[in-house]
Structure formats: structure tokens, C-alpha cells
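Weekly structure sync, notes
Attendees: PL (lead), two postdocs, one rotation student
Agenda item 3: pending single-chain targets
PL asked that the sequence for the first pending target be pasted directly into the notes so everyone works from the same version. It is reproduced below exactly as submitted, 271 residues in total.
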Amino acid sequence: MDLWNNPRWFDDKKRQEQLDDHIRTTGKARFGIREFEEEKKMDAVRIHFNRVAPKYDFMNSLLSFGIQHAWKRAAVRMLGVRRGDKVLDVCGGTGDLAILAARRTGPTGQVTIYDINYAMIQAGRHKIDPFPTRAHIGYVQGDAERVTFPDHTFDCAMVGFGIRNLTHLKQGFSEMVRVLKPGGRFLCLEFSQPTNPVFRSLYDFYSFNIMPALGQLLAGSAESYACLPETIRMFPLPDELADMLASVGLRDVRWTSMTNGISVAHVGVKE
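Predicted structure, written out during the meeting:
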């Protein structure tokens, strides 16, 4: 991919075309700027994360200048995890959010990392398995659009920087709400559009020039690190996402923007 090719932020109409109804109507789904047959997107996402998994944590910390860890800590505080809670970490990957939640549940609770990509789960196990204080974190490999747990299982469900990679976004949120107990708490931490136009321009330059170049140099794939910011520019804006979350059965939905809107945490409560 041309590193100077910035797809720009999608307008309202184009963002709507990334949602479940349009995808099911057309049979087409995007992963970044690439378009796939609806049923083929999952394979593209799997290949992508197989490629980035070995250096996922290192690259995320480097490319975010470490601030991703502050976002995650703030988001888990917003979720309000309590001692003894059962927590589901959807698209949990290498386990950063799960580790933060596990500190709050204590050993009487249970945190489950749920991710379709085996390579991503394996890449994070060195942060969990050797530590007895994290023995209450478990792993399940599975599809976030078809969560393999019964209704009303968890006190909390969370997803961080992963939901935008699903083929059917609303279906993924619906599954998270389904497995929550009534009154259970929900968190979605995702990237979004910076609010200041000048800062947004700098962010765009960094995303489509510096990030892919570092991805090529340090992880051997410029394309992988151009694809990630492409997916961000197609994702619903915070107010649009709040409306979607309310439509799948959450109340008291609110969001907090961090670092000029680069990252946004939405929380809500199951009806």
C-alpha cells in the first residue's frame, strides 16, 4: 500500500455502510480499505492478527507512546469491576484488560479472555500463566459474534480495541449484552476521531506515514500497520455508538473521550 494514501474519515453515509444491515444486504464487508465477500472477512482478520501477534504488545506500546495503558486503566475503573465478579473480555487478545480486571475481582472472581485468534491468546500468556495471583484468568477461543456462554452468565463484559474488526458490529454487541446478568455492566474501549482539526491532521500524518514505516521496520509489515488506522476511520462516532448500544439493551450509556478523542470509553448497564 502507498504509505501516503490516507482514506480520510468516513462521512455519515459511509459509516452506515459498515454496519450489519448494509453488510447483510450487499454481502460485502470491509477490513480497512479492502472489501471482501461477507463470509471472507473473518479469514482476512485472522491472517492479519496471526501476522501481528508476536509483536502486538510491543508495537502497541511503541506506537501509542505508552498512553494505551493509561486508557485501559481508566476504562476498567469506569466499568466498576467488584470483588468476586465474573468478567468476560471479548476480543481479549493478549490480556491487558483482563489483567486489570482480575486485580479488582480478586481470586474469588473469574475473568475470561475470549478471542477467536489463537496466536493472540498465546502471545499474552506469558503475562498471566506464571503468576499465581492471576490464576483466576482463563481463556476461551471463540467467535465474538456467537459467544459460547449461556444467557445471564457475567457481571461485567468488556471489549478493548477489537470490536471494530468484527464483520457484524451490532451482532457482537448484542452477544455481549446477552451473556450479561440483568444489571450487569458493559465497557467498550475503542479508537475514534480526534476532536481538534489540527491535531487530527497530525494524527492522520502519523497514522499513514510513521506507523506503517515503523511496522515495516520493526514487525516486517507496513500493510498491517496501515490497515489498523483505516478501520478506525470507518468506525461509528461516539454518539452513534451510544445509540447502537442503547438499541441492543443497555441503559445509562455514557462515554468519556481521552487524548483529544483518540480513544473513547463507553459504559452502560444491561436493562
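Discussion points:
- Residues 12-196+224-270 form a domain with the Rossmann fold fold (CATH 3.40.50.150).
- Residues 197-219 form the longest helix (23 residues).
Action: rotation student to compare against the earlier draft before next sync.
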